[in-house]
Queue: 4 jobs
Job 1
Amino acid sequence: MTPLTALGDPVRAKIVEMLAERELSVGEIGKHFPISQPGVSRHLRVLRDVRLVRFRERAQQRVYSIDPEGFDQVEKWVARCRQVWSRRLDALGRHLDTTAARESKGGKR
């Protein structure tokens, strides 16, 4: 699974949004969802596996936070998409400029 695939689940996406604001324990995360604690733990495991979150032990709790490493993959994917679309939009702009120049010279085609 990739970070983007993991974020495709609304529960996991919400967990990441919550952790972007502050560190939370499994119990604190679970209070926000109508699912069992084991269900929350499964979502957290998926997010850990793709390196979007990490945890540290605090007494008897696991406290989760954002892991920037997984977001590097997401940023690289977004950058590739932007690069492709930028080239396509530049080509469209050139085409429209050429078309407008032809039309302004009265050479409609």
Job 2
Amino acid sequence: MPDHLHGLIGVDGRDSLSQLIRDYKRITAKMMGIRWQRNFFDHRLRHDESLAEKSAYVCQNPARAGLIRNERDWPYVFIPGKGD
């Protein structure tokens, strides 16, 4: 998306999501000149939600916004283990 980022991130009990996001923003700001907003919004998967459901939502977002016709046309997707 041109004005925000969606990510599905798994964090174990030893890591801090806030620290991971802070470091990611700091690195991408330095390397790519991205100007990030100060905070972020997170949503934990609940018992009745599936990872596949949330992944589908994220992948369909650019098409819903009218930026592409088909979600497979969006070039800005990174899935670890799939051609990385």
Job 3
Amino acid sequence: MPKPSLRDSILDAGLKTMFRTGYHGTSVRDVVAAAGAPQGSFTNHFRSKEAFAAEVLERYFATVRGLVAQALDDTSLTPRARLRRYLDIITGRLEGDGFTRGCLIGDLSLEASGSSEMLRVRLGQIFEEWREPFAACIAAAQAAGEIAADFEPQELAEFLLASWQGAMLRMKVERSPAALERFKKIVFQTTFRELS
């Protein structure tokens, strides 16, 4: 009988470890120890740490896609309220981690994009894909007359995601939701202010 694959356990352990110690601070030894797997299992499934990190990133982004859909596909809310709902969902998840963990996409963008061309390119693609449902929601809010149409929806989506990443970085430093709440308060009273 063949041995069960440890691939999923190694990926799960890698996600947790990279969140805690970062890309450069995570060793293969750390990951296999956390997964309770022999070191050979890693090399059986992944050709390099870089390739492994790319798969961890994909696994994480799949979760992010689900959270985006949970908020932005909720047609019981207005488009503007859906944008707010997404930020509130993320805030709740960050609170569950004691405001110590941010976004792996943002973390890897800071840490790995300078040392891994493969990860840099994939992160760029992820940001482009991530932007699209926000741009569509913003366009719907503009079409409904909820928010101003001074800027293109894609530009506003880029602004929202980039600024939110910055707020999460500050949150991690402060171990507090203050930066997140400040961002939400300001952005919904200015850029995404409801038109009367």
Job 4
Amino acid sequence: MQFLYREGADYVFMDNESYDQLQVPSNSIGDAVNFLKEGDTAVLPMYKDEIVGVELPAAVELVVTETEPGMQGDRVSGARKAATLETGLIVQVPLFVNIGDRVKVDTRSSDYLSRA
């Protein structure tokens, strides 16, 4: 299914084959809300017309919307800083990552993987 948009606390998905739309409460999606952005595709396993989870790719690319300014020359030190991503997820990133950068994040552990 393709994630279309948020409507209040619900997430609206569209079946890619039948084009039917499905409203899913955020509590049925769990931590996947931290990785979903409009237009993304996800597998929603169902049991008796109820969503039982969300299967996402192992990694997603998200844009950094808020972080401290980058530091030139701190590429090797291994130091980290907090960055807020477009979905609201906060991850620890290297000091050279700036606002507007696309980063790759592991959907299983919420860890920064690399710049995209």
